[in-house]
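## Example pair
The file below holds two records. Each record gives the amino-acid sequence first, followed by its structure token line.
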Amino acid sequence: MVKEKEEISVTYDFDTPVDRRGTDSLKWDVAGGELPMWVADMDFQTAPEIRQALMERMAHGVFGYSVVPERWYDAYIQWWKTRHGYTMERDWLIFCTGVVPAISSIVRKLTTPAEKVLIQTPVYNIFFNSILNNGRQVLESPLRYDGEAYGIDFADLEEKLSDPQTTLMILCNPHNPVGKIWDAETLRRIGALCKKYNVVVVSDEIHCDLTDPGTGYVPFASVSEECRENSITCIAPTKAFNMAGLQTAAVSVPNPVLRHKVWRGLNTDEVAEPNAFAVEAAVAAFTRGGGWLDALRSYLYGNKQRAAEFIHEELPSIHLVPSQATYLLWLDCGRLGMSGEEIAETIRRETGLYLSEGSQYGSTGENFLRLNIACPRTVLEDGLRRLKAGIAAVSG
């Protein structure tokens, strides 16, 4: 696991709240007085270096059809090489408008109706949509949870992969919502099993830059030749730099046969062309945004520590699952005797705090809540106070 050099700047402001109401924000499309801490976008402005690049592009004033220039490829390649110790080749990369459109396109192109796509639950809920909406079957291989942390049940995984109807696996690396960074040996074992049973791996690595300070992640395709040649990796700057609305991402496919299929699928689905700002945003993020990102990661880690301290001291009935990545906290509420859905509804009704309930990430998440802590510290404190009041209402 690569530990990158930290270059934390003190010039970035994450403490000043940004009013997002009235901006057509999905997250903040809530009633007055409510506090949304659910969907995975941050309440911080993106890096000033990115904003400057977009303003320069805006000043040009002409927003016609765009191509993908060489500097876009160079930006991805250099970022992964320097930040993650992994060298991609230019030909591997394909532009796409987002990780979710890419995954849905890949499901359509590489599987046939009624085939099974394996996911490791609890996992990002949109994976279910990408599978079911395309007429494929969801095959869950639940992660093993010991009441403290998560791991992989390799016996169950192999059994599910060995099903002849299982032709694709979607891996979440790092894992959302449990915040797990899969180590090289774990990824190698997954890759070997998928190769053995002829199952292609789609690795969603969109959270890879949101690790705790001093901690890196391991690209799935980097751990073995089997993993590299039997995988498709979906990557983007959008999660780490809070610019999902700009619709900019990439797919990396080392295997030329797989790459051609993915390329055909993305182009057929018309999700392989950039808008006028997509390239500028990505290039600025990967060439000029490192200092901001490191400062952000330190701030998020401080938020995580504060939330852990509060939950430990004020909410002993809740277990905070330890994590190494993402800004999403996974809360085990099993001791409260109610489903996560009931708890979330009660908390929102009584306090206005809007959280994600765990069953949407698979049946094994039924007694959990997901809390987004990517916000200024004062907002986090408000959310934690509301959480305490909401749990009291549930318990009372």
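Second record, same layout:
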Amino acid sequence: MRRVLRCRNVHPTPETRYVIDQAQVFEAFRESRDFDRELVAIYHSHPRSPAYPSPTDRAEAQWPDAAYVLVSLRGEPPEMYAYRIGEKGVREIPLVEP
């Protein structure tokens, strides 16, 4: 079973930065009785910039096995891409795996 957990952005300037509410994430994992769950993806939007990991996104990436899905809202239609972010850099991956 898969689920999406929407977390609050608790950064003081949420228009330009995001910080996931760690208490909310902890609570979600604590409440889960299924300890075989894995973190598959993390998503957030870029209201005015491309759907590509910013220097801050890359510096703060904590889960190298998760997909980072970015949505750019700078134009119509919105752009959406997925990436793996790790020590070796950024690699675009398909949004849907075959």
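Notes on the second record: The helical segments are 22-31, 55-60. Residues 20 and 87 are 21 Å apart (CA to CA).
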